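User: Sequence for Leukocyte elastase inhibitor below. Tokens please.
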Amino acid sequence: MESLSRGNSAFALDLYRAISGENPDGNLFFSPLSISAALSMVYLGARGTTADEMAKVLSFSSIPDVHTHFKTLNSAINSPKASYILRLANRLYGEKTFSFLSEYVDSTQKLYQADMQAVDFIGASEKSRKLINHWVEEKTEGKIKDILQSGTVTAMTRLALVNAIYFKGKWKNVFNTEDTKEMPFKINQNETKPVQMMSQTKKFLFNYIDEYSLQVLDLPYVEEELSMVVLLPQESEDGSDPLQKLERELTVDKLLEWTNQEKMDRWTDIIVHLPKFKLEEQYSLEDILNKMGMSSLFQANAADLTGMSSKGGLFVSSVAHKAFVEVNEEGTEAAAATVVMVNFCMAREEHFMADHPFLFFIRHNPTKSILFFGKYRGPQ
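Assistant: Structure tokens for Leukocyte elastase inhibitor:
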């Protein structure tokens, strides 16, 4: 399963860069795991060039039996826990006049706990859109509404791929609300906006990467099975954007190395300042995935999905993704939890002041899976 979490991390970074490139100055939040799990169900039915392109973009090429790994990963992540709620929901909606192969339908059910629902896109596209939206809203406790906007589902739609993820977890060390104060957040060198800044001092897993003047902080959720990891580059003195250098040069190896809990300092008191924030982001990923190299999947005359249906002409018309996160003193609503042991040592303090743009991700620690990935550039 390690090969899958590494592949998923590589895809997460590639996708992050592609999305960020379209909106470099904005906030960003998405679930790479949810997207790759849903695309992986399509990959199950892809053949030929379409399958090759998908494997390359998703970083699946060197992973034998990727679908079995996903089954293991899904059950590890979806195992019921009292301390947090984490739900991953995937579904495929297919035009009812298309006959999907029973082998494919059985496999998506067995490997992904995903139902294939036949809908009447041709005769009732608007009704089908509302049906899909209702299912997503239900699976995300009402947080994700209208994932498919009006006009995205038409009589030409043959297959819609929908993914949704929901997480709610409490910090292992909650922030005291009385310590939250309004502070300026530096959007860039010339502009600040007020944020509600939470603060606390505790021993947290911490790393400092000299080459990038980068602080790495691991904030665990209750039971430490999930964490929010924050990557905070030092502000630049020459007017350049330190986040852009990090985004450009960040690799999977660096990410795994810097955030490896066994190699992080765990004995230092960290004075943490972290803003409360809420993000809701929506993406249509077809163009982005196309640019990343997954092109034939979206073309009626080129897509080879013959592992799904023996009829020709089946292709993916939309990949809709919407993600929501809220971070406050109690914890996070979106997706997350981690591992910290407190040992006794001579007191040393480190200041972690997140009052300027940073990257963050929420990770499932036992499987090292990145559930959510984001960038916070301040209130928009």
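Residues 177-276+330-376 form a domain with the Alpha-1-antitrypsin; domain 1 fold (CATH 2.30.39.10).
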